[in-house]
């Protein structure tokens, strides 16, 4: 593992710190994705038992996105007071407790509450984890963030297969209870490493000074045009987010519209998640070697085409698998690429606030997309709903024309 971290350069922190940051953050992110993504298969059996349809599924997804998105915007204020490792530890424990409680629900309302608790706990992973990584790996931030995303997508890759296999031998409630232990264990591990993962150097000591630091940092972030535009690119693309429309609707669509078995649903979702591992690493590496702006544009164009193909794709498994593989490659890369551009656009002291604002704005539209797609699927159908999602990427393409590549040419040539 130390050889891999050395390949990423670095002169920030000790080798022990860098190894701890890279692998603990990556594994934690994978566990987070496993917890969230397994419900894509489990919804097939949860919906009939608790008695809700696509519109109600949209409500669940919207509430989770709202809770996760709102809390993501606050971590820039929290990091001057609480070590980042503690925030990630607490978040994983809350995620685990929410997942554990989901196994005991008896109604749709209780299900919404426990999933909201889980989403709130998982919200620390993106802004705080990303801030840790780019702090220790500043010159290869695109590649390191891509590695983080791809390893997290290994959790997504394993979750449908594991959930589908577990459904053959146990009830969905038991699955939630068992996998909750993963997040609880991960949270405890962060506390063991709390002394190795430090906050920024030269932080102010008084509480008032820390609040002023956070406030001023948020002001600088909000005034940065690049930062806002890149966040809006993340916002307008309707698909490709965690806890979003892919997680909520693809499994039920494959079951109800394409008549696939639970096993084939798991295989189909696995194809998408394989793409989600390959895409971020390749496109993240490519963005470090050249213009990040035009790599993002390329990914947005392909995301629109792949989403439109999915909207019209039938149950013929070879074409469906190929479509989902490409769909995963391009739609799951957008977050990695936009995070790297956010990091390019602002200095290190504003990093925590920048990622908090980025994830808050980027996920702010997720409840809207979740509710809209649920209503469209309920009343018109999957093809029309995902055609609308394909069109949403066109707005992102237009916005990217106004974004500037913020990296100095010397940095690009050095990678």
Task: Spell out the blueprint of helices and strands.
Layout: H1 2-7, H2 15-37, H3 39-50, H4 54-72, H5 75-78, H6 84-102, H7 108-122, H8 125-136, H9 141-167, H10 172-192, H11 207-222, H12 225-236, H13 245-256, H14 262-289, H15 292-312, H16 317-331, H17 334-345, H18 351-364, H19 366-379, H20 382-400, H21 409-414
Task: Please explain how this structure is put together.
There is one protein chain. The chain is mainly α and 415 residues long. It has 21 helices and no strands. The protein has helices at residues 2-7, 15-37, 39-50, 54-72, 75-78, 84-102, 108-122, 125-136, 141-167, 172-192, 207-222, 225-236, 245-256, 262-289, 292-312, 317-331, 334-345, 351-364, 366-379, 382-400, 409-414. Helix 4 packs antiparallel against helix 13 (245-256) and helix 13 runs antiparallel to helix 14 (262-289). The longest helix has 28 residues, at 262-289. It is globular and about 55 Å long. The model is unreliable at 4-10 (pLDDT under 50).
Question: What's the alpha carbon Rg, rounded to whole Å?
Answer: 20 Å
Query: Could you give the order of the helices and strands?
Result: HHHHHHHHHHHHHHHHHHHHH
The number of distinct helices, counting runs of at least 4 residues, comes to 21
Judged by helices, strands and strand pairing, the structural class is: mainly alpha
Give unreliable regions as ranges: 4-10
Beta-strand content: under 5%
Q: Tally the beta strands.
A: 0
* Intertermini distance: 21 Å
Note the overall shape.
Answer: globular
Helix content: over 70%
Main sheet record: none
Round the mean pLDDT to the nearest integer and report it.
83
């Amino acid at each position: 593992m130390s050889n891999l971290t050395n390949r990423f350069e670095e002169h920030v922190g000790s080798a022990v710190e860098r190894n701890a940051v890279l692998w603990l953050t990556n594994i934690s992110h994978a566990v987070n994705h496993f917890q969230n993504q397994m419900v894509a298969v489990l919804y097939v059996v949860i919906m009939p038992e608790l008695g809700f349809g696509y519109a109600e599924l949209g409500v669940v997804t919207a509430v989770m996105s709202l809770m996760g998105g709102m809390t993501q915007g606050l971590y820039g204020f929290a990091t001057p007071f609480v070590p980042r490792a503690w925030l990630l530890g607490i978040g994983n424990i809350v995620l685990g407790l929410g997942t554990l409680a989901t196994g005991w629900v008896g109604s749709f309302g209780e299900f919404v509450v426990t999933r909201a608790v889980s989403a709130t706990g998982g919200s620390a992973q993106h802004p705080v984890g990303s801030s840790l990584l780019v702090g220790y790996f500043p010159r290869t931030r695109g590649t390191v963030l891509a590695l983080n995303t791809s390893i997290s997508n290994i959790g997504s890759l394993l979750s449908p297969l594991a959930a589908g296999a577990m459904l053959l031998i146990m009830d969905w409630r038991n699955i939630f209870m068992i996998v909750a232990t993963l997040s609880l264990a991960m949270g405890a591990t962060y506390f063991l490493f709390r002394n190795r993962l430090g906050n920024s150097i030269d932080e102010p000591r008084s509480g008032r000074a820390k609040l002023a630091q956070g406030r001023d940092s948020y002001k600088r972030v909000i005034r940065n045009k690049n930062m806002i535009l890149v966040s809006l690119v993340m916002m307008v693309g309707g698909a490709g987010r965690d806890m979003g429309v892919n997680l909520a609707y693809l499994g039920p669509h494959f079951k109800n519209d394409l008549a696939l078995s639970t096993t084939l649903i798991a295989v189909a979702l696995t194809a998408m998640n394989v793409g989600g591992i390959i895409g971020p690493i390749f496109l993240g590496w490519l963005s470090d070697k050249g213009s990040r702006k035009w790599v993002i544009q390329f990914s947005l164009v392909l995301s629109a085409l792949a989403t439109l193909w999915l909207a019209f794709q039938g149950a013929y498994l070879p074409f469906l698998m190929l479509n989902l593989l490409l769909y995963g490659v391009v739609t799951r890369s957008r977050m990695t690429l936009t995070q790297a551009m956010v990091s390019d656009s602002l200095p290190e002291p504003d990093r925590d606030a920048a990622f908090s604002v980025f994830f808050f704005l980027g996920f702010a539209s997720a409840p809207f997309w979740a509710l809209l797609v649920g209503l469209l699927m309920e009343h018109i159908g999957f093809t029309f709903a995902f055609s609308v999602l394909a069109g949403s990427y066109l707005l992102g393409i237009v916005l990217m024309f106004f974004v500037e590549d913020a990296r100095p040419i010397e940095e690009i040539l050095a990678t």
